[in-house]
Specification:
413 residues, two-stranded antiparallel sheet, 2 strands
Length: 413
């Protein structure tokens, strides 16, 4: 879908990518150190910046030498396939980016096979633990099913990598089971966590919380299951699972038909009161806000052949794009917490159904993002930095995100 934002978006993406081309200029010594900048980290390390250069090379806007240099840094050292491995870290993260590279170059196939084996082991271990937890009728920990740490993320990878593989079917079957009602009728829904939004117990959330977000909540499972339905995978109960999740999100949908929105999370007190105060409306970010929740609803509507749900989702993103107050709440540049996530989710939604009204709002938001990028120095990382902003602008500028889609790690495609 072409917009008047195309040329400036692509030009800015090119500039950002050039600034991120040489590892030694991005990080002193050419390697990241500490925090989520560990090389295997998709969010903050070399893996994430490699993804930018891989996507540019795949679409003919970058060179494979640059992509290869970043991949080489990402895979240096011992690759984690331990309990901390997930779509955003370790073997699964490296398999994710290598799959994108291998789709255009046979050079990476052997490495991908080894990473796949490690990722299969991670997924099988996680599945066994999850099913044991369900057998005990205990609430799930956040890291069991969320996108960043858990099985929704691993499911997103496997659905993209090998949709008909046994492990893909097993992860999807788990996500179906996750949505089935628990034996205790007083607990609802079955994906309600007994922890705070941080993933740890807290006195502020004595009875846990229900999470709608794509990063850490049921939105990720909704997206993955909906994408599987759209790809005609015959997993028993998937349609029912999507409908169960949608029934819950419909229960808590706020606003009106012109501008609906969903909370990022609710506490047990709010659930008991049946009320979400308007001040709890989340910012329009990908992780908890409408950039993620509207796309998940659009995918669910398409999967269920429910045009009213698709329309509500598109109304939600359109209302946000037209609301200066909501845009002002999103000054950051990133995919997770900032404007890049909103730009890309809106592009993805407009492209999916040919929504010209959403597309017409993209130039203005793109200008805001480009201005914000020019005004300050930013972290180079993928999730909240310039690498992610460059990917969103590159995609808008080229009008294409070829399969295997780079934004699978955001559960947007």
């Amino acid at each position: 879908m072409t917009t008047t934002a195309t040329a400036p978006a692509l030009s800015t993406a090119d500039q950002l990518a050039r600034a991120l081309a040489a590892p030694e200029t991005v990080w002193p010594g050419g390697r990241p150190h500490g925090g989520r900048s560990w090389p295997q980290s998709l969010a903050g390390g070399a893996s994430g910046i490699a993804l930018l250069h891989i996507e540019r090379a795949r679409t003919g806007h970058g060179d494979w030498d640059t992509a290869h240099n970043w991949l080489a840094i990402a895979v240096q050292g011992e690759v984690s396939a331990a309990a901390n491995a997930n779509l955003y870290f370790g073997a699964p993260a490296l398999a994710f980016i290598t799959h994108r590279a291998a789709s255009a170059s046979s050079r990476y196939l052997r490495v991908l096979e080894r990473l796949d084996e490690a990722t299969l082991t991670v997924a099988r271990t996680r599945l066994a633990e999850a099913h044991r937890r369900i057998d005990r009728a205990e609430p799930p920990p956040m890291e069991e099913f969320d996108l960043i740490q858990g099985l929704s993320g691993l499911g997103a990878y496997h659905l993209s990598r090998h949709p008909h593989h046994e492990i893909t079917q097993d992860v999807l079957a788990y996500l179906v089971r996750l949505t089935e009602p628990m034996p205790d009728p007083a607990r609802a829904p079955s994906w309600w966590m007994n922890v705070a939004p941080t993933g740890a117990p807290s006195a502020d959330y004595p009875q846990g919380h229900g999470n709608f977000g794509l990063s850490h909540g049921i939105g990720s499972a909704l997206s993955v299951l909906s994408l599987a339905l759209l790809r005609d995978l015959a997993i028993p109960g998937m349609g029912d699972a999507v409908e169960r999740i949608c029934a819950w999100t419909d229960q808590w949908r706020q606003g009106d038909e012109i501008g609906p929105w969903w909370p990022g999370l609710i506490s047990m007190q709010q659930a008991t009161d049946g009320h979400v105060h308007p001040t709890l409306r989340p910012r329009a970010s990908w992780c908890y806000g409408v950039s993620g929740t509207a796309r998940a609803q659009q995918l669910a509507g398409l999967a269920l052949r429910d045009p009213a749900r698709v329309q509500a989702a598109e109304n939600a993103i359109l209302a946000t794009l037209r609301d200066p107050l909501q845009l002002d709440r999103l000054p950051e540049i990133g995919l997770c917490h900032g404007m890049a996530g909103l730009v890309h989710a809106a592009w993805r939604m407009a492209t999916e159904t040919g929504n010209s009204e959403i597309a017409a709002e993209l130039p203005r938001l793109t200008d805001r993002l480009i201005t914000a990028l020019d005004q300050d120095n930013h972290d180079p990382e993928l999730l909240d930095g310039t690498a992610g902003a460059a990917l969103a602008l590159h995609t808008l500028g080229t009008g294409s995100a070829p399969a295997p889609h780079w934004d699978t790690f955001l559960a947007l495609a």
